[in-house]
Specification:
Layout (H helix, E strand, L loop, with lengths): L3 E6 L8 E6 L7 E5 L2 E5 L7 H14 L9 H10 L5 H4 L2 H13 L5 H60 L1
Antiparallel strand pairs: 1-2, 2-3, 3-4
């Protein structure tokens, strides 16, 4: 089955706006789409031509991060399928166009490029936490070694003391 563009109403907009995606079986469960976190693969994705697959790969670098007004899921779907970006929601329907442009001004979106920095930040935090855990373990092991040494010396002292007492008893 060849891939096609499909859409679903976005519940948080009461169905006014729609989420567009590409699917070979017509379901969102097996689709490719575009959103705030970049390219979204669901399930098995969609069966694309090599040319369409190339468009998917180049899209984030070519057009930048997601924006509800100027780089939305509908534009992505149209570009992947036929090489031209189009959004009836923001280019044809005037009230949706105005709404999308206003929302794009205040919408906090983690772009694809921003996602790279989040991933880098997470990697740094992970490394710091690993190093902290290793340092904590090393400190605990050193403290335990000191305690073990203390008790070993104490036991040796008590054994020596006991031997001295036994030797004194024998000599008297």
């Amino acid at each position: 089955m060849t891939a096609s563009i499909y859409s679903l109403p976005i519940e948080s907009t009461l169905g006014i706006a729609r989420h567009y995606f590409i699917s070979s079986d017509g379901t969102f469960n097996n689709s490719i789409g575009w959103g705030a976190k970049g390219i979204e693969y669901n399930g098995n994705g969609a069966k694309l031509t090599p040319e369409q697959e190339q468009r998917v790969k180049e899209y984030p670098e070519k057009f930048g991060g997601y924006n509800i007004y100027s780089n939305n899921c509908e534009m992505f779907a149209w570009y992947i399928m036929n090489g031209r970006r189009y959004s009836g929601q923001t280019q044809v329907n005037s009230h949706k166009k105005i709404g999308a442009s206003v929302i794009s001004l205040v919408q906090p979106v983690l772009t694809v490029r921003g996602m790279k920095y989040v991933q880098l930040e997470r990697a740094i935090v992970k490394k710091i936490n690993e190093d902290l855990e290793a340092a904590t373990i090393a400190k605990l092991e050193a403290e335990q070694a000191m305690r073990d040494e203390f008790w070993e010396k104490r036991d040796m002292f008590l054994r020596n003391r006991l031997r001295q007492r036994e030797n004194m008893k024998r000599s008297t």
